[in-house]
Amino acid sequence: MQLFIGGACAGKRDAVSGRFPAATWHRLAPGAPLGAWRETAMAGHPLVLTGWTAWLEAALVATPDDDRLRREWGEGLTALVDAEREMALEVVLILPEMGRGIVPMAAEARRLRDLVGWLAQDAARRSDAVWYVRHGLVRRLG
Predict the structure, then answer these.
(1) For the chain, where are the alpha helices, taking DSSP H only?
(2) Is 63 helix (H, G, I), strand (E, B) or coil?
(3) Domain of 62?
(4) How many separate domains does the chain show?
(5) SS3 (DSSP) at 92
(6) Which residues have C-beta within 8 Å of that of residue 114, sequence separation ≥ 6?
(7) Beta 129-134 vs 137-140: how paired, if at all?
(8) Per-residue confidence band for 40, with pLDDT thresholds at 50, 70 and 90
(9) Distance (Å) of CA 68 to CA 59, 65, 71, 73, 125
(10) What CATH number does residue 39 fall under?
(11) 103 secondary structure, DSSP code
């Protein structure tokens, strides 16, 4: 699994499109199960997952327990790693970088920022490669 992370309009999509031109893209739908990507995945083709922020915003409303939410997405990330092996596909995650800048005043916005950071950490731990994208420049972090 590969993780591309960076701020808004940093060039993440372009970086992924250039590296994985034959990829199938799946946008996580707010309120949909994390495993809905299975409907899009094709054996032997890279699978790019986007839409994490909107998916997580909806999950915050549905699941007030942060530990439970982390367990759920942890199981989802593990399923993606398993699918790579079982379906001979490369999974690519595009995540926003929200950890820099002003701390939000609203509690919900702070919770979203914190959970996006934890999601990125959990995804990075499971990834074979982590890429940081800023101003269209791509640097491998791990």
Answers:
(1) 12-19, 52-62, 66-87, 107-126
(2) coil
(3) 2-140
(4) 1
(5) strand
(6) 66
(7) antiparallel
(8) very high
(9) 11, 5, 5, 9, 19
(10) 3.40.50.300
(11) P
